Amino acid sequence: MINFAWRVTDFFFTFLFPCILNLTLYLRIFCVAQQQVKVINSQMKGGKCVLDGSVKRKSENKAAVTLGIIVVIHLLCYLPIYIFSLTGDAVIPSTTANFLTWTMYVNSGLNPVIYALFYSWFRKSLKHILSLRIFQVASSLVDIFTDHH
To answer: Is the dihedral of CA 69, 72, 77, 78 positive or negative?
Structure first.
């Protein structure tokens, strides 16, 4: 039997702190990506932007939605087991405990699926890796950002 103090400590160090760290890092990644787009646009010759306003907003929204979905799914996968853990000394049936534990583990496999759903370049990269074409000499020359093969 684990006492309440240990459950609260576990909650802070294995759930709350990593969640805050994830949110902070994802927000930082998003901000850096926005800054990079601005730098690229400002350095284009002839004053032409790489992305016009609507495409830029669409790209930023897609990135924000993707990161938001990743964070929400992380919370949905981890939060239930911690809610049960913090509810007190009630005994959790082993089937429920196993389900909640596996839900937590499944989160690790969901991020690549989410990226694959949102980004064609990720799907192309994954296909390139899984088909072992990454070991070919010209592998580094493959353009994953265009639609032609």
So the answer is: positive
DSSP 91: P
Q: What's the mean pLDDT in 81-107?
A: 80
Report how far residue 97's alpha carbon sits from residue 99's, in angstroms, rounded to the nearest whole number: 5
> Is the backbone of residue 46 left (phi > 0), alpha (psi -120 to 50) or beta?
left
User: Model pTM greater than 0.70?
Assistant: no
Amino acid at position 36, single letter: Q
For 17-56, write each residue's pLDDT tens digit.
Answer: 988 888 888 788 777 777 776 776 676 655 555 555 566 6
What is the number of other CB atoms lying within 10 angstroms of the CB of residue 13? 10
List, in order of start, the domains of the chain with CATH numbers: 4-118 (1.20.1070.10), 119-149 (no CATH)
